[in-house]
Amino acid sequence: MDITGTIRNVLPPKTGEGKNGPWKKQEVILETEGKYPKNICFTFWGDKAESPLFRNGSAVKISFDLESREFNGRWYTDAKGWKVEPAGGEAPQISEDNTIYHDESNAPTDADDLPF
């Protein structure tokens, strides 16, 4: 499966030692495109956890697999990314406070303007 969006947040990388040796995990939050955008957490393992595209505001295309598993009667679903590449088109605008604006018409013009 593939999905395109903007990286909203890059979480701190996690590392550890398992029975098969050391491991590394990187989680990123992707905001999807469209009228009703969604935030999805993708997990990248091993060498795939190191990508220069993992930056807030990067427009990317992520290839991933979904996997669910049961534990104590509850089901948990992971979105495991296996490839990340730049998305086509323009990069979104990012304000100084790292708020992402997909086009200039939604960006605030003055800090004193109230949204209501």
From TrEMBL:
Pfam families named in the record: DUF3127
Region (Disordered): 1-24, 85-116
Name used for this protein in its record: DUF3127 domain-containing protein
The organism of origin for this protein: Prosthecochloris ethylica
